[in-house]
Structure of F-box protein:
Amino acid sequence: MSQDIYNQEYLKRLQLADQQATCLILRSESLLVIRTRLHSFWRFMDLPIEVITEVLCNVTPFELLSLSHTCKFLQEMIMRRTAEYVWLTAERNSATYPSYPWADISKPHFAGLLFMMLCTACGNHTANPLDPFLLVRLCSKCCSTEQVAHVFVSPKLTFI
């Protein structure tokens, strides 16, 4: 009985949202775009977690990373350790995604290194490529300050 009441209240909220969006159609075109997207987003957030997870399993790692920056709810959902399955299926959806041989960094961290053009040290935008051995992306300024030439490293450590 209480489930029926909940469903009726949910349907009333959806109908009210549709009526508000319809009223905005009559007012102005620019408000329509903002409001209808807002209502569509909240309808998406009302979906069960299983459905949202299934939707997230059909995107690429770049799209997952982009979605994680849209709102706090999706960020918490996508960046959890329990979302490993979502990242694995996203990797399979991308034909050009490189293999993931490292166990010491998480899959979201690896995707961030690949796709976000930010310096690992200072956080500024950089066009420099990712260093595949150090797993860092450094800007020109940080390259000179953060990297150490192998000449200065003790010979005892060079075999590591």
